[in-house]
Amino acid sequence: FLRFSFCSASLSLFFCFPDFCHGVEIQQPSSVFGRDGDPSVTLTCKQDDSQFFYMFWYRQQGGGRMELLVYSPGALSANVEAPFNGSKYSASRPTVLASSLQVQAVEAADAAVYFCASSRAQCVRNYQAYFGEGTRLTVLGEIR
Predict the structure, then answer these.
(1) pLDDT per residue as tens digits for the range 32-41
(2) What is the pTM for the complete model shown?
(3) In a domain, 67, yes or no
(4) How many domains is the chain built from?
């Protein structure tokens, strides 16, 4: 799995092997399909360690930089981050171990890879965010 430091100006990449470091396992589907004009599409994420209170959703379009969409400090709390619009994106966090991201009014511009991440702390140098492998949202054309 991959571990990223997310508090510095740039992301630092670490490779962890199960015998040498402990982290959280992030599970998210590899792909989700939506159709242009759909009212919404939902992306899901699960993690396996209740000590990892913080969860995040990032969007990466066209291999560009990762953009923070959602910050969640714990169960029952999830905040869409500026400059993203709360009417376009919403998130839920029913438990510490699960989160979902909803994309409203699906359109071609929503096609991207969406990464779920989790951390023990919000921004402490000794804690890294552990990322899932990402969910690729593919937006298909309207049915005519």
Answers:
(1) 999 999 999 9
(2) 0.81
(3) yes
(4) 1
